[in-house]
Amino acid sequence: MFHMEHCVFCAFLSKGKDYRDCGRPCDKHRVKLRDRVGAEHILKADAGCRNTLYNSRAQTGAEYATELLALGVRRFRIEFVDEDAATVTRTLERYQALLDGKITGTELWNDLRSSTNSASPVERCACASNQASSFRRGRSPVIRRESDAFRTAIA
Predict the structure, then answer these.
(1) What is the C-alpha separation between 95 and 93, in angstroms, rounded?
(2) Domain segments of the chain as ranges
(3) Which of 83, 118, 119, 121 could cysteine-pair with 87, CB 3.0–4.6 Å?
(4) pLDDT above 50 (res 136)
């Protein structure tokens, strides 16, 4: 959803003032913020103590893959946080099939959604590279979701 320089972990879970004396509560605690409709959005801190609040629902830019490939994009990033190894493997295999032209972005998304239950997000995905060319066309294929525990790149 968005990034911020303010560290919520330090402000509310520490007596410190910043990264130098906070004790890194972000390494010990899981924080989710609940919105007005009850959706829980995961909050993560990166190595530079910047916080990212992620959408509660999995998102993907897979439906833009064909257009991005046609524009010359050759690198895509998929980010995971707390998915198990089987989910990560299946997701990466499906994205590879998409990039190989064996399935469409819509098929990929429907397949991944149907292979999980509603209590467990499908994926936390970011498909982003060569963003300038797609921004010029008036829409953004960049969709970010949780990052931390597992990152990979498909070239």
Answers:
(1) 5
(2) 2-53, 62-154
(3) 83
(4) no
How do residues 77-116 score in pLDDT, each as one tens digit? 887 777 889 989 999 999 999 999 999 999 998 888 887 5
Tell me, what DSSP letter sits at residue 54?
P
pTM: 0.61
How far does Cα 87 stand from its chain's mean position? Answer: 14
Task: Give the burial class of 70: count Cβ atoms within 10 A of its Cβ; 0-12 exposed, 13-18 middle, 19 or more buried.
Answer: exposed
Res 116: pLDDT: 56
Q: Quote the tokens at residue 76.
A: 């895509």
CB burial readout 9-35, b (16+ within 10 A) else e? bbeebbebeebeebeebbeeeebeeee
The CA R_g of the chain, rounded to the nearest whole Å, is 17
Token output for 72: 């010359």
- 2-4 and 150-154 beta bridge pairing: unpaired
